[in-house]
Amino acid sequence: MLDWPTAKLGGGALSEQRLHRSLSTYLNLMRVAAALVVFLYHASYPSITDGVLHHFGYLANDMVMAFFVLSGFVIAYVADSGEDEPATFIKARLARLYSVALPALALTVLADSIGRSLNPDLYDSSSFQGSHPIARLLANAAFLNQVWFLNVRPFSNGPYWSIGYEFWYYMLFACAHFLRGRSRIIGVAALCCAVGPKILLLFPIWLLGVITYRLSRQTGDQPLLGAALFLLSLAAYAALWHFHYRSQVDDRVDAFFHALDLQMSFQLFSKYVVGLAVAMNILGFSMMQRLVDFGHAGRPIQWLAGMTFSIYLFHYPLLHLFAAILPVAIDPRVRAFLLIGLVLGMIALLAAVTERQKKSARLLVDRTWTVATRIIATWQRAYRAS
Fold first, then answer.
1. How far apart are CA 27 and CA 9, in angstroms?
2. Based on CB atoms within 10 Å of each CB, which residue in 141, 177, 365, 367 is the most buried?
3. What CA–CA distances, in Å, run from 296 to 21, 280, 282, 299, 302?
4. How far is residue 333's CA from residue 314's CA, in Å, rounded to a whole number?
């Protein structure tokens, strides 16, 4: 995922106030690359672009693991540098998620309604789930879509699944970071029981980001060791692709957890290796960051990073919508080019009123939080009086 908060309430890209500029830019670059790979992977589906684009295989799932590590890194950063109160932390997370998640759900409903009326065959059982629409929307809006053995897809928006993991990782982190003693143990244990094994199986990958941030604060400048870690991470990922045991080991590990109905937590071996490689890559770069200067490229990278959450949550329903709209009679390569351009252009417009407008979302969350706090306080007083 996907969430990319800042220590201040400013833009969507990583704040450079307490991170070196080159590390901030590099993390933003990773984020942009991961979002675009996921987008191109889904655009390569034969039902979308008739097989014109190269199929990206495992890359999409690998990029989601990269998002998890990046998210853990940034959450640890903001908790360390600005959001040091539990209420502040939780409100910031809700504002960040809902600024894009709720528009994404609304967009999905609208896009699917139009697309299905134009080309219903495009929305088969593998790309669309529409039963019990109200309950489906509520489950996804409350981030309950993946707890235990649920897999509640919001209509055509398949990538939304990871938000149902990320939110609970934030809450687990908040319990472990802000609570103390017995309250911490009870809070973490209660959340683990609430979310179930499927989400917890990928939690260590997210925690790698937290560990990487804390290690980066301790290691300092060690260019030679950093370069070695950086290159080793690339070699580890290349080896995962080069050798043919990836699928075999994944199948054996997944078979071991077969009774748990892993769903989106499948291919565990590959996901853990990718998570380790991404963590090593970030740590290695942080140790040699002062030797790297992105120059004037930093600003455009930061601008692009400011809409990657929108790319991730908006692209799939928009791909189906424009695939249903564009005529199939035109040249497949021209059609694929138009499709990608239209979707990215629409996302850029939508990001201007969602991801880049988090201040409005934060104000709404603040007001809702205040009202909810007052209601709870009133109930408590009434209960004590009785």
1. 18
2. 365
3. 12, 26, 21, 6, 11
4. 23
